[in-house]
Amino acid sequence: MVASRAIGSLSRFTGSRTLRCPGYICRTFTGSSALLTRTHVNYGVKGDVAVVRINSPNSKVNTLNKELQSEFTEVMNEIWASDQIRSAILISSKPGCFIAGADINMLAACKTDQELMQISQEGQRLFEKLEKSTKPIVAAISGSCLGGGLELAISCQYRIATKDKKTVLGFPEVLLGILPGAGGTQKLPKMVGVPAAFDMMLTGRNIRVDRAKKMGLVDQLVEPLGPGLKPPEERTIEYLEEVAVTFAKGLADKKISPKRDKGLVEKLTSYAMGIPFVRQQIYKKVEEKVRKQTKGLYPAPLKIIDVVKTGIEQGSDAGYLAESQKFGELAMTKESKALIGLYHGQVLCKKNKFGAPQKEVKHLAILGAGLMGAGIAQVSVDKGLKTILKDATLAGLGRGQQQVFKGLNDKVKKKALTSFERDSIFSNLTGQLDYQGFEKADMVIEAVFEDLSLKHRVLKEVEAVIPDHCVFASNTSALPINEIAAVSKRPEKVIGMHYFSPVDKMQLLEIITTEKTSRDTTASAVAVGLKQGKVIIVVKDGPGFYTTRCLAPMMSEVIRILQEGVDPKKLDSLTTSFGFPVGATTLVDEVGVDVAKHVAEDLGKAFGERFEGGSLELLRQMVSKGFLGRKSGKGFYIYQEGMKTKNLNSDMDSILASLKIPPKPDVSSDEDIQYRLVTRFVNEAVMCLQEGVLATPAEGDIGAVFGLGFPPCLGGPFRFVDLYGAQKIVDRLRKYEAAYGKQFTPCQLLVDHANSPNKKFYYQ
Amino acid sequence: MTSILTYTFKNLPSTSKWALRFSVRPLSCSSQLRAAPAAQTKSKKTLAKPNVKNVVVVDGVRIPFLLSGTLYKDLMPHDLARAALLGLLHRTSVPKDVVDYIIFGTVIQEVKTSNVAREAALGAGFSDKTPAHTVTMACISANQAMTTGVGLIASGQYDVVVAGGVELMSDVPIRHSRKMRKMMLDLNKAKTLGQRLSLISKFRLNFLSPELPAVAEFSTNETMGHSADRLAAAFAISRPEQDEYALRSHSLAKKAQDEGLLSDVIPFKVPGKDTVTKDNGIRPSSLEQMAKLKPAFIKPYGTVTAANSSFLTDGASAVLIMAEEKALAMGYKPKAYLRDFVYVSQDPKDQLLLGPAYATPKVLEKAGLTMNDVDAFEFHEAFSGQILANFKAMDSDWFAQNYMGRKAKVGLPPLEKFNTWGGSLSLGHPFGATGCRLVMAAANRLRKEGGQYALVAACAAGGQVCHSRSTGASGKSFSLKQSKLIQECLI
């Protein structure tokens, strides 16, 4: 389940949906009385400096939507026209957000690429006017400054940013399958150099301010202030404004130069970039790398390279035109729609729809200091939860404690934490072998070995020591929660919390409720998960819940395909080229062959024929030989420390040979193999929705992408059905059904969607 | 941050009926303290506590505080501490064998003399039977030395304690890097030539890069000047306000020096150099001159500059503390009672230097006094901006309600009673030694100006403060001091 690491970066978005409310009148007026009709942008004048304040009503964030843009244009025109004003600063009145980017809904509402191109060109024109302004403009940035917000900021003559963790700069467009369409692709390379610009635009990564300062993306930093005569956040913004005003004055008086001294390395780089041959090499290198990583499945990165290249090689007019054209094209692609859908789903799964729990969880206890238990502990202590980590043996406990420490220490090495913060965070963890302190626990998460009788034993032991309000959560990937809860004295307090390994990297948390689980227990579990930084789906109890249940039939198909003689490496490349971040064979090794066997047996019993396909015997033989996958060093592949390329495990040949079955030629083309895997996955996912295991398609998509690595460019199984067409999927299933039988029988809901093309899982 | 309240009894002839009345009271002053008639208008209660011994400051001295890198630069810390001890012996004529215990505060430790109190005491000719220890608590180390002494006396362990502090910023321990140290230690243990060679072969040039003593807070990695600049900004204190306050400090210090008020300063013959008789950091300048300086920490737009910060200083100080009855029995006329003290601490990031604001009301409440009762305030001036931020915090209802858990603001100390003989900005701030200077300045001011209570306060790294308070001998003075920490002591 390493799968979705690649798109982990999606999580870095801050929610940025704007609620618009037409009748609203803005309350933050500081400036002149003539501006009382504006709701998003207004300004006041301090001496000869205009202070432009951005504050979208009814929203936590500012987004560049049509209203904001038009008001901003009006304001700037007034400023340029005024004789009294010699310079201006732009600042947001919202703590934690400068401008979070363009309004995604505005883009989604466009029907043609012409419309989108027009939006892009409007942005380009506005920002070009800023860039060419004779009155210096200073962007005073506090909080997220992303996408269009950053394009706005880099169009100003000077940038000052608050040096706090909330203030980040970046171009996340690529993660939504589009490109910075308001001049960003043209201005950024000039500002930070081509290599750094490519890095920012192609990865979409957020840049912390200290790094931004070094890169030349911002010119000055302002430290956040502590308590004074006002709340610190308020005073910090005020201070930022004061500093920005002095700089604006200095720029207008020509006492400060907007030009930055470049370091030696920078000078050398920009010299080298002046040589056409070097530039060509860089384009080539970057393109190769992108092609390798995206397998050609994501059009946006290549277009970004193309647009940057056009701007540099053919001049900025051609560059701007290319930018707006490609922006329009990209926003209309299926990939972009899929990625934007995921983004919306993610925003949804970051909310607690069960409300606030009656009692906030402050003390957490975790049973079992294995990979999972320690991982859960790590993501809890760094959010300030007092956490007990209990294990049965000192050696096991020590290993777990070390894992938590290492996780934190790695952050110190990356300078995300100071060593002092690490120590103080690590103090939130208590390692122990007994149940001392459990009487104060608000929630216990057990992560002991997947064995029902063991889980029953710990449940009984724990219930004897915990207070009445304490929630008991079981971290299991396949054991039904109601079976675990069967021995509980208070089944309403029992819930499933299925984490994915490695816990500190995987964003998904699958919460499983039984019929007896109370709403407050669920609210409590979701609250803890959100605190731990997870994206959460809440599903109903049943064998394999949602994620494991979808994966199982696909895994069964993987085994059948291998039995049919397809080379494991080939199967891996077929799956990764379809968009899975990890190849199917490798995935079995990563999950663990014993776990896979366990799950396959359990779910096989529960669902019968539909989960058949590959022979379980293959897994049994592998387990008996000790080929458990990565953890034992051998599975389908051989794993060695420090080895980058992995070799096939030659001992598998005899096992595969002994279980070989003849392939069926009409369903064994490369494409068929890919679709056999994907359609079984999708069919099972839709069945989960049909049976009510899933509450919404969005949760299904988020679970599949973030937990199982379903190709993000397809947007998840449900989005895939919508975009690819239910009919085509049913046709494929019927074809495979003819060859293999019931395992491929499409479920009723899918058939319904195929029969009425207007039926969609998503209507936007 | 800490604050010590020193309660000095003035025994000037200029005391009033108050003193007369007071001498009748059982605790505070005895008939030996000259009760004198004078213009004392206020009459205040004593702060003596039943069943607790009264602790007095007999007297205190300091060697001149010098800019680091000047005349003391070739000395070691214990040389300065020894000079202060010898000066104290001379000033008070206390027999060495009467001293029960010696405590010194210091911040940047010279590793060779890590118990600098003991080294200085032995060198000064104290008996080798007199125990001594060294304490460290950043800029309130000397306050901690004094309050430790108060505790020892009040609890009846000892009667006579010498407390002091020393800092030599002209020389600081610069270490080899950890890698180099490790290799050197391993080399020591290596037995064969082969082992040694293999260790040496691991040597890399970067092992030689030295480790400087941290100027930044360990927990936050922020230097104090940087923190002070942010603090000034948080309270919206302008550069001119800060420069103006610094100028006041220098002017007042200059005046006090010229008028000979800094009577705690003793001359010090520096070996091989001239005799130093006065502090050399007092340099009244003009606001125009000061405005020309560039910000020292937050560049280029900060407000804290070299001119409105305290400078790196070398110096040492010492005070003689006794149980009251012992002092009287020995025929001393003590300068002050040390009454209550409080140490407080806050967030080391954003409230590093705000201790005095927190500690002042606490120590006053503990003593049952109000701001109006205090006749002399001696606050440690780390930075102009820090003092002014503390003023603003003490004058703000919002701050009191949101951060101090109080209903209303503490109130401002009146400037005419505040650091009227200069402060750390002008006199200098040898970290470990400032606390004793504050207490002696408070006591001497009460005696000179006629007052009963003084309050001493200082802020310290780590976010702690000490506050202390003293009253004068025939009934007048009281000082409260607070050093650079977040705890408070009211002596």
From TrEMBL, chain A:
The reaction(s) catalysed by this protein are:
(3S)-hydroxyhexadecanoyl-CoA = (2E)-hexadecenoyl-CoA + H2O; (3S)-hydroxydecanoyl-CoA + NAD(+) = 3-oxodecanoyl-CoA + NADH + H(+); (3S)-hydroxyhexadecanoyl-CoA + NAD(+) = 3-oxohexadecanoyl-CoA + NADH + H(+)
Write out the entry's keywords from A to Z.
Answer: Fatty acid metabolism, Lipid metabolism, Lyase, Multifunctional enzyme, NAD, Oxidoreductase
Residue ranges of the 3-hydroxyacyl-CoA dehydrogenase C-terminal domain? 544-639, 676-755
Recorded protein name is enoyl-CoA hydratase
* Gene3D superfamilies with a match to the protein in the record: 1.10.1040.50, 2-enoyl-CoA Hydratase, Chain A, domain 1, NAD(P)-binding Rossmann-like Domain
Q: In which pathway does it act?
A: Lipid metabolism; fatty acid beta-oxidation
Q: Which family does it belong to?
A: In the central section; belongs to the 3-hydroxyacyl-CoA dehydrogenase family. Belongs to the enoyl-CoA hydratase/isomerase family.
Q: Where is the 3-hydroxyacyl-CoA dehydrogenase NAD binding domain?
A: 364-541
Give the EC number(s) listed in the UniProt record: 4.2.1.17
- Which gene is annotated as encoding this protein in its UniProt record? LOC101391774
Pfam families with a match to the protein in the record: 3HCDH (PF00725), 3HCDH_N (PF02737), ECH_1 (PF00378)
What InterPro entries is this protein classified in? 3-OHacyl-CoA_DH_CS (IPR006180), 3-OHacyl-CoA_DH_NAD-bd (IPR006176), 3HC_DH_C (IPR006108), 6-PGluconate_DH-like_C_sf (IPR008927), ClpP/crotonase-like_dom_sf (IPR029045), Enoyl-CoA_hyd/isom_CS (IPR018376), Enoyl-CoA_hydra/iso (IPR001753), Fa_ox_alpha_mit (IPR012803)
Question: Is NAD a UniProt keyword of this protein?
Answer: yes
From TrEMBL, chain B:
According to the entry, every stretch annotated as the Thiolase C-terminal domain falls at 332-464
Establish whether keyword Kinase is in the entry.
no
Enzyme class name:
transferase
* Key word Glycoprotein present: no
UniProt gene name: LOC101391356
Q: What is its EC number?
A: 2.3.1.155, 2.3.1.16
Catalysed reaction(s) here are: decanoyl-CoA + acetyl-CoA = 3-oxododecanoyl-CoA + CoA; octanoyl-CoA + acetyl-CoA = 3-oxodecanoyl-CoA + CoA; dodecanoyl-CoA + acetyl-CoA = 3-oxotetradecanoyl-CoA + CoA; hexanoyl-CoA + acetyl-CoA = 3-oxooctanoyl-CoA + CoA
Q: What is this protein called?
A: Trifunctional enzyme subunit beta, mitochondrial
Pfam families per UniProt: Thiolase_C (PF02803), Thiolase_N (PF00108)
Whose protein is this, by species?
A: Ceratotherium simum simum (Southern white rhinoceros)
